[in-house]
Structure formats: C-alpha cells, structure tokens
Amino acid sequence: MKVWIIEDESVVARTISQLLELRYDAEIEISSSVAECKKMIEQGPFDALLVDYNLPDGTGYKFIADSLKDHPWLVDALHIFVSGVSYVDLTPDFQESTRALKNCHVRNKPVNASALYEILDPVLPQKG
C-alpha cells in the first residue's frame, strides 16, 4: 500500500508520516508543493492521500482536481484534506473540485492520530 502526504509544513508532514509508520505497513511519500506533486504523481497510484489545503504554489484540492483526467486512479483513492481554515469544505470551488472523488474526508488542523486512524484503518493494513 502507498500513502502520499502533501504538506508544506515539514514538522506536520514528518509527524503524520511517523504516526502512519507506527501503525501501518505502507510506503509513504511526502511532497511539499504543487511543483513537487507534479513529479510525484507519476509514481502513483497511491491508496491514500493526505492533502494540505494551502500549498506555497497553489491549493492541494485544485492540484488533485486538475490531475484526475491524466490519473484516473485518484478517483478511487482515499483523500483526507487537511486545513487550518475551518470552513474549507463549504466553499463552492472545493465542493466542485472534489465532487468526483469517491472517498473524501476533510479534517481541520491540528489533526489528531485517532481521527486519522479512524479514516485510514479500513483502507491500510496495520502492522502486526
């Protein structure tokens, strides 16, 4: 299984990665910008994506939406969008951009481990 963390705050990305490494048997990749994502997406498909809303050069959800045509595996992957903006999932642009995704969740920062595990447990194999 493969997990892709898209997060520009390195401390947050490392913390999430460590939480996942403790619990799951999965390969984890990290990108911190849309530019990096454009390269990393070619290493897909990924089973789960944890995507920051705001990146230094764009938004995570817009990158995903723009990539759906060339990478149809994104439709079926688990997406967890994370944002410090509490109303992000209510904006029409976000709703339109993520409409095609089959398994999409939104969580506010800071995200705690139990909230992530609750969403990821049905998808990722646990160590053990």
Description:
The chain has 128 residues and is α/β, with parallel strands linked by helices. The protein has one domain (2-120): Response regulator (Rossmann fold, 3-Layer(aba) Sandwich), CATH 3.40.50. The chain contains five helices and seven strands. The strands form two sheets. It has a five-stranded parallel sheet with strand order 2-1-3-6-7, sandwiched between helices. The protein has a two-stranded antiparallel ribbon with strand order 4-5. Helix 4 (92-98) links the parallel strand 6 and strand 7. The longest helix is centred in the first third of the chain and has 14 residues, at 10-23. It is globular, with a radius of gyration of 13 Å.
What would a concise description of this structure say?
By secondary structure, the protein is α/β, with parallel strands linked by helices. It is 34% helix and 24% strand.
Topology:
Elements: E1 2-6, H1 10-23, E2 27-31, H2 34-40, E3 48-52, E4 54-55, E5 58-59, H3 60-67, E6 78-83, H4 92-98, E7 103-108, H5 113-120
Parallel strand pairs: 1-2, 1-3, 3-6, 6-7
Antiparallel strand pairs: 4-5
